[in-house]
Design goal:
This protein is of the alpha/beta class. It contains eleven helices and 17 strands. The protein binds zinc ion. Zinc ion binds next to helix 2.
């Protein structure tokens, strides 16, 4: 089968579109013929190499995929050949104390499929194998591309806002990167919970997308000062929640934008990990800083109900053929993407 493979870290030049063996399934796994796979920042971290996180070579990235089941292992009962599925990319042992509680991300064997798995075990391929537990019915109202664009950003944003930050009606939520993959989900999850998203992006075009998704306020960070605008919008009170995933470049503004007793929730740091925190703000304003990482299957299934009802819509910038994975990653690194990029077969 064809796949996007790399054998060393580097720029997009290390990505090769080449033939590799088809995956072989075990008794509890399924084989999926992939129709589309979604691009995530994880693909870029894996390609560049991330200190402290070994990437298994040769590597196929891709933690989001949608396709049709073409083979099931002898023990599989929850899905069958012909089922249209998407991948739930949180892999864990399924039997330990943490897994039993639904805290799969605390499992000693927790892995992000298509990021920490391998060799040759990710979504940007013609066929993939996953545990049957991780095959989730594809929302019927979505195209293959839209279905593949969504699970990882959907469940990440859902866990951040709903489970961790406990977003509620009336909350003001500052959303960085509001037109990106995570941001478009966050804005819609806020709207769904009666909260008001303050969308931040670097162009009016992106902010128009955020507004259409339900953002109550917008800030163009290329020509407006985010902290000043937050003060104006909230009448100096500050926001209830900051939705953080950008890190170093935005962290201090995020903390200063919070109201007294407000909550910052973060799942990543695309601009760098070494953010500065004025600890006085933490105790004086009694702020909450919450980390969030991936999600469990229940959180994905809960969020998907709102996708099926049309309340949460995937936003796809463009669908490219599989061999254009490098172009897609370049667009994400350049910060020009609105919504998600997907690779079709
Ligand atoms: Zn476990």
């Amino acid at each position: 089968m064809k796949a996007i493979v790399f054998e060393e870290h580097g720029g997009i030049g290390v990505l090769q579109h080449k033939d590799v063996p088809e995956p072989k399934i075990s008794a509890n796994e399924v084989l999926i013929k992939v129709r589309a796979s979604g691009c995530n920042y994880n693909d870029i971290w894996a390609r560049r190499g991330m200190p402290g996180m070994p990437v298994i070579m040769p590597h196929i990235s891709g933690s989001d995929a949608a396709g049709e089941i073409v083979e099931v292992g002898s023990e599989v009962t929850n899905v069958k050949v012909g089922d249209e599925v998407i991948v739930h990319s949180s892999l864990s042992c399924g039997t330990c104390e943490a897994c039993s509680r639904g805290d799969v991300f605390f499992c000693r064997q927790f892995k992000i499929w298509g990021f920490q798995t391998g060799p040759l075990d990710g979504g940007h391929a013609e066929y993939v194998k996953i545990p049957a537990f991780n095959a989730v019915p594809k929302p019927k109202n979505l195209s293959w591309g839209k279905a593949a664009s969504m699970p990882l950003v959907l469940f990440t944003a859902w866990r951040m806002l709903v489970t961790r930050a406990k977003v509620k009606p009336g909350d003001l939520v500052l959303v960085w990167g509001a037109a990106g993959g995570l941001g478009t989900m966050a804005v819609q999850i806020c709207r769904l919970h009666g909260a008001k998203a303050i969308a931040v992006a670097n162009s009016d075009e992106k902010l128009e997308v955020a507004r259409q998704l339900g953002a109550a306020h917008t800030i163009n960070r290329s020509k407006q000062d985010v902290a000043d605008e937050v003060k104006k919008i909230t009448e100096r009170r500050g926001v209830d929640i900051v939705f953080e995933h950008t890190g170093e470049a935005t962290w201090e503004t995020s903390l200063r934008s919070l109201r007294w007793g407000g909550t910052l929730v973060t799942c990543g740091a695309t601009t760098g990990f070494e953010a500065k925190t004025d600890i006085r703000l933490l105790w004086n304003k009694q702020l909450n800083i919450l980390g969030s990482h991936m999600a469990n299957k229940a959180e994905l299934l809960e969020a998907l109900r709102f996708v099926e009802s049309g309340d949460i819509k995937p936003v796809v910038l463009v669908a490219l053929p599989l061999q254009e994975a490098g172009l897609a990653q370049q667009a994400m690194e350049d910060g020009n993407a609105i919504g998600k990029l997907v690779l079709t077969r």
